[in-house]
């Protein structure tokens, strides 16, 4: 076959044409497949991008950037500094207001730290948590106020609460006109029986017998109080036996409770070395012995002594007489008597006298 015939062979031409057609079709299909793949890939990328944008927006909020860990730590530190500064300024404002109102330091601290029991001993202030295992008082400071005569009144909403007015006196109160005291609205009186002196000798109050007789004849409920400054339970027993003899001699003129007074000892006092448990045991021993003789008892102390020197949980069953002369009720625990003033004025007594309030528990 000649060269010319090879070139013009129609079969050869058709075959080449067909191959070209098939190649172009394959190329077209490949391009279409690639395009479809890219479309789906772009759609997936768009979804991922939107999810990422949502996460960014959630993290940075209205900010225009994401924070690094270092930046987050810096923001937290700045916020804490701002909070401390705000709290400090608020505290300074409260202190300034307290000072401007003439409040003393103890009153100011009690208002600044309402969740703590703040007491003063000497020139130091102490902070105690309120004990959950000691019966809490049903009353608040808003339940009481002093009237124009300086007498404390219950003004709370519980109509079942009853109160009575009273005083406590000693030989330092001088000659007393008990009829005038009764006519001035006093219902009861606690009369000093005495206590141990600085050398440990028991000493009877010089006016005990006269005051008991005068108060009883005038119609007041008459109780007695004894200062317990012992150094051991053996001394507490001795004191109780002595007290019972004095009470027996007074006969039926003692119609009220016998109070065991627990003063806050100073470093020079003989009872200062006693710890909380030891002193509490002495109080319980004394009170138990007096009760066994047929008398009602009550424990008397100031807030500082109750808080720092006595185990209130161990004295839960003892009625309490609290000395709290701040003008408002601060003692958080249940009490029966409240010595609310040492600056009282009562007819029949020259000079100032301690004022007391007996308060019943609300009906439950």
Structural features, described:
The longest helix has 51 residues, at 10-60. Helix 7 (233-250) runs parallel beside helix 8. The model is unreliable at 1-7 (pLDDT under 50). Helices cover 42% and strands 20% of the residues. The radius of gyration is 44 Å and the shape is rod-shaped. The N and C termini lie far apart (131 Å). It is of the alpha/beta class. The chain has nine helices and 13 strands. It has helices spanning 3-7, 10-60, 69-100, 105-112, 178-183, 208-218, 233-250, 276-292, 303-308; strands at 116-121, 124-129, 144-146, 152-154, 163-169, 188-196, 202-204, 221-227, 258-261, 297-302, 320-323, 337-344, 353-359. The chain has an eight-stranded mixed β-barrel.
Task: Break the fold down into its secondary structure elements and pairings.
Layout: H1 3-7, H2 10-60, H3 69-100, H4 105-112, E1 116-121, E2 124-129, E3 144-146, E4 152-154, E5 163-169, H5 178-183, E6 188-196, E7 202-204, H6 208-218, E8 221-227, H7 233-250, E9 258-261, H8 276-292, E10 297-302, H9 303-308, E11 320-323, E12 337-344, E13 353-359
Helix pairs in contact: 7-8
Keywords:
364 residues, alpha/beta, two-stranded antiparallel sheet, 13 strands, 20% strand, disordered N terminus
């Amino acid at each position: 076959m000649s060269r010319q015939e090879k070139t013009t062979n129609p079969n050869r031409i058709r075959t080449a044409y067909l191959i070209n057609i098939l190649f172009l079709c394959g190329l077209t299909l490949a391009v279409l497949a690639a395009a479809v793949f890219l479309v789906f890939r772009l759609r997936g990328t768009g979804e991922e991008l939107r999810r990422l944008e949502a996460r960014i927006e959630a993290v940075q909020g209205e900010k225009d950037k994401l924070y690094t860990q270092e930046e987050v730590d810096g923001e937290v530190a700045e916020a804490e500094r701002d909070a401390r500064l705000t709290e400090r300024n608020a505290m300074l404002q409260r202190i300034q207001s307290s000072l401007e109102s003439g409040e003393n330091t103890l009153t100011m601290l009690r208002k600044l730290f309402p969740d703590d029991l703040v007491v003063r001993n000497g020139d130091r202030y102490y902070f105690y948590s309120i004990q959950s295992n000691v019966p809490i008082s049903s009353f608040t400071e808003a339940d009481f106020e002093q009237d124009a005569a300086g007498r404390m009144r219950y003004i709370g909403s519980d109509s079942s609460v009853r109160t009575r007015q009273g005083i406590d006196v000693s030989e330092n109160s001088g000659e007393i006109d008990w009829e005038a005291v009764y006519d001035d609205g006093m219902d009861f009186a606690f009369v000093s029986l005495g206590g141990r002196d600085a050398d440990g000798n028991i000493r009877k109050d010089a006016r005990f017998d006269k005051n008991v007789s005068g108060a009883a004849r005038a119609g007041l409920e008459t109780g007695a109080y004894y200062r317990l400054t012992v150094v051991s339970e053996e001394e507490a027993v001795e004191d109780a036996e002595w007290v019972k003899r004095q009470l027996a001699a007074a006969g039926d003129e003692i119609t009220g409770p016998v109070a065991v007074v627990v003063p806050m000892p100073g470093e020079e006092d003989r009872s200062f070395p006693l710890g909380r448990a030891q002193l509490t045991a002495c109080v319980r021993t004394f009170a138990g012995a007096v009760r066994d003789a047929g008398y009602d008892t009550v424990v008397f102390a100031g807030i500082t002594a109750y808080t720092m020197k006595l185990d209130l949980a161990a004295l839960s069953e003892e009625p309490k007489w609290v000395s709290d002369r701040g003008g408002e009720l601060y003692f958080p625990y249940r009490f029966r008597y409240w010595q609310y003033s040492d600056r009282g004025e009562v007819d029949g007594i020259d000079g100032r006298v301690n004022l007391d309030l007996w308060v019943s528990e609300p009906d439950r």
